[in-house]
Amino acid sequence: MSQTRPRAEFPVDGLPAGDAVRLMKTMLVPRPIAWVGSRSAEGVANLAPHSFFTMVSNEPPILVVSSTGRKDTLTNVEAMGQFTVSIIDRALAEAANATSAVVGPEVDEFALAGLEAEPGVAVDAPRVAASPAVFECVLDRTVEAGDGVVMFGRVVHLAVAEDVLVTDARGYRLPDARRLDPVTRLGRNEWGGLGEVFAFDRPGA
């Protein structure tokens, strides 16, 4: 039996404006969400979710967050050179969605969403007190890519809730995915939970 599946083909150059992006966002799922905490040069706290987010380097540890267009997060990070990334668990999903509202730079999204902010340990940027895990970063560089600007953050501090940490069979004390309970972005207005967790050992490992 053939393993080829019937497909609809979409040449990107021939699609109406926005259609390619909508297709891509519903294909690249699930996407982890960086809940980025920053502070403006005037001292106003900012908090916003970004789903163009991943880790790109082991040594030094570097993660990337992409801003589509020039948003307050990017302005603050460029001005202050530091930021935090809080993980969003299921209990925080609605509050995270609230912080995606388009508001002026004078608005503190922590207050807008009814969230408690706590100061970073190694950076002067706020983090979500209720988050199960946080990265604290200093800006390494920014790179323009199409209509986006990619922020490379060198991770200088990590904070994890005690009730999320588990010592595994190798003796490593690490977050347990089920306890972390992260939410993800899907397509349209959809979000997702962790779902089934399964494991494979790498061949030859």
TrEMBL record:
<dbReference type="Pfam" id="PF01613">
    <property type="entry name" value="Flavin_Reduct"/>
</dbReference>
<feature type="domain" description="Flavin reductase like">
    <location>
        <begin position="27"/>
        <end position="174"/>
    </location>
</feature>
<dbReference type="InterPro" id="IPR002563">
    <property type="entry name" value="Flavin_Rdtase-like_dom"/>
</dbReference>
<dbReference type="InterPro" id="IPR012349">
    <property type="entry name" value="Split_barrel_FMN-bd"/>
</dbReference>
<keyword id="KW-0288">FMN</keyword>
<comment type="similarity">
    <text>Belongs to the flavoredoxin family.</text>
</comment>
<protein>
    <submittedName>
        <fullName>NADH-FMN oxidoreductase RutF, flavin reductase (DIM6/NTAB) family</fullName>
    </submittedName>
</protein>
<keyword id="KW-0285">Flavoprotein</keyword>
<dbReference type="GO" id="GO:0016646">
    <property type="term" value="F:oxidoreductase activity, acting on the CH-NH group of donors, NAD or NADP as acceptor"/>
</dbReference>
